[in-house]
């Protein structure tokens, strides 16, 4: 029993003996069919939700404008189309009215669903062109002037809402239908297919350019919003890192005191048991280890371009007078009042973190006066009540050119003030004054306070 084998590169033949189409031709057919399916899918699927044109406007009259314009087109085109089809083309009145409604009424639908409206209109326009073929002598064919006006308005609305592929597909359908219908129009009629092709292409291109420009502006606004949020977050993190670097000296001082006291306790105190001496040694070792960890943490927090000033001793309320005098030399008439804090003992009662925060708040407030209200008279008041330090900086109207107070800076702005107040669990009140000027008021607790977590 013998068997016949077919070479793998041979094309199989159908049972009737006819040669099958070559593989290359089949691939071409498959490509064309795939392209047609893709074009049909792009024409059938709208680019966005069924949202009315200008529907995102906050003003009601703006949202109604597209409907008013569409109703104006419909109210004009329906009676004109009916009369022209009846009188000039001899179309029966009922059919002329039906064609006029089908060709013009979908313009109202185009405000929210332009692709669906276009599908209805193009079918109605083609049917109308077929109806007038026999009686279009000496008249416009295949598209009447009313069809062209309504179709161009529809194309403009559609190009504002749909993507490039859909717009191109709509124009190609317009081209093909116009050329095919032009082949059957009476020879003595006025050809309008080329006019429709050129005008619809121009309108679709213009609308598409407007839509893409609007989308580019919208994306630019969104990106700027994202960038601003990232910039604010980065500024906040940088400010917190800067505050942490400044507080290093405060915490390191306390840890150093603990280390010295624990190391010297066996020599200062008489009668300590060996266990107590060992406990003090353990405390000193733990404090020294903590200091080492803090130095490594400071190395991480310190920026690469950190200046040597960050390694200098941190300022406090005792240096406010020098700060105010430097500000006065810079051209800002400033006065400092701190009646309860004139004695060294009073300043010693202020915790180091509060001392540093109060100085930085006054410094940043004065810096904002110099930058944004040059020449404004400024009053600085620092006082104590039973459990808090009160810092108030008030400046009058600007003596020179004023500019808005910045809220996102790199250490000398409202973000820095808020972070320093949050650090010690206090409160901050900032804002413009009714008669002009600006006020900064901070209340910093002197006792233990749980600062809110971020």
Automatic annotation (TrEMBL):
Q: Which residues cross the membrane?
A: 64-85, 91-109, 116-136, 142-160, 167-184, 190-210
Question: What are the EC numbers?
Answer: 2.7.13.3
Residue span of the signal peptide, if any?
Answer: none
Query: Can you give the residue ranges of the Histidine kinase/HSP90-like ATPase domain?
Result: 357-447
Residues annotated as domain Signal transduction histidine kinase subgroup 3 dimerisation and phosphoacceptor? 239-304
Pfam families, sorted: HATPase_c (PF02518), HisKA_3 (PF07730)
Spell out the Gene3D superfamilies in the cross-references. 1.20.5.1930, Histidine kinase-like ATPase, C-terminal domain
Region feature Disordered, mapped onto this chain:
1-24
The alphabetical list of record keywords is:
ATP-binding, Kinase, Membrane, Nucleotide-binding, Phosphoprotein, Transferase, Transmembrane, Transmembrane helix, Two-component regulatory system
Any one Gene Ontology MF annotation carried by this entry is: kinase activity
Which reaction does this enzyme catalyse, per its entry?
ATP + protein L-histidine = ADP + protein N-phospho-L-histidine
Q: What class of enzyme is it?
A: transferase
PANTHER family, alphabetized: NITRATE/NITRITE SENSOR PROTEIN NARX-RELATED, NITRATE_NITRITE SENSOR PROTEIN NARQ
This chain's protein is named histidine kinase
* Organism encoding this protein: Streptomyces aureus
């Amino acid at each position: 029993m013998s068997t016949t084998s077919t070479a793998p590169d041979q094309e199989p033949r159908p049972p009737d003996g006819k040669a099958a189409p070559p593989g290359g031709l089949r691939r071409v057919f498959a490509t064309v069919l795939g392209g047609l399916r893709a074009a049909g899918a792009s024409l059938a699927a709208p680019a966005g939700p069924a949202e009315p044109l200008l529907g995102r406007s906050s003003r009601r009259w703006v949202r109604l404008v597209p409907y008013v314009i569409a109703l104006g087109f419909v109210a004009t085109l329906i009676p004109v189309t009916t009369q022209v089809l009846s009188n000039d083309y001899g179309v029966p009145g009922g059919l002329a009215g039906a064609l006029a409604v089908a060709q013009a009424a979908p313009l109202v639908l185009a405000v929210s669903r332009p692709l669906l409206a276009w599908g209805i209109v193009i079918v109605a326009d083609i049917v109308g062109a077929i109806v007038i073929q026999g009686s279009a002598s000496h008249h416009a064919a295949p598209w009447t002037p009313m069809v062209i006006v309504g179709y161009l308005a529809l194309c403009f609305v559609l190009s504002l809402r749909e993507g490039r592929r859909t717009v191109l597909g709509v124009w190609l359908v317009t081209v093909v239908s116009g050329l095919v219908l032009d082949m059957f129009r009476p020879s003595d009629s006025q050809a309008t297919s080329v006019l429709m092709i050129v005008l619809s292409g121009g309108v679709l291109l213009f609308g598409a350019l407007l839509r893409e420009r609007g989308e580019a502006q919208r994306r630019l606004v969104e990106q700027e919003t994202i960038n601003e949020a990232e910039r604010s977050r980065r500024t906040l993190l940088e400010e917190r890192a800067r505050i942490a670097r400044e507080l290093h000296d405060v915490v390191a001082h306390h840890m150093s005191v603990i280390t010295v006291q624990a190391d010297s306790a066996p020599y200062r105190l008489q009668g300590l048991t060996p266990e107590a001496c060992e406990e003090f040694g353990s405390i000193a070792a733990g404090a020294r280890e903590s200091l080492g960890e803090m130095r490594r943490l400071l190395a991480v927090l310190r920026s690469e371009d950190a200046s040597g000033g960050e390694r200098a001793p941190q300022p406090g309320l005792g240096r406010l007078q020098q700060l105010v005098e430097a500000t006065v030399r810079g051209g800002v008439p400033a006065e400092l009042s701190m009646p309860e804090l004139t004695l060294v003992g009073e300043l010693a009662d202020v915790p180091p973190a509060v001392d540093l925060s109060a100085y930085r708040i006054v410094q940043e407030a004065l810096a904002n006066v110099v930058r944004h209200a040059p020449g404004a008279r400024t009053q600085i008041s620092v006082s104590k009540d039973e459990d808090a330090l009160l810092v108030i900086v008030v400046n009058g109207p600007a003596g020179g050119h004023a500019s808005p107070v910045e809220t996102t800076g790199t250490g000398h702005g409202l973000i820095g003030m808020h972070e320093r107040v949050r650090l010690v669990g206090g409160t901050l009140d900032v804002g413009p004054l009714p008669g002009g000027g600006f006020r900064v008021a901070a209340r910093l607790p002197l006792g233990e306070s749980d600062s809110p977590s971020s």
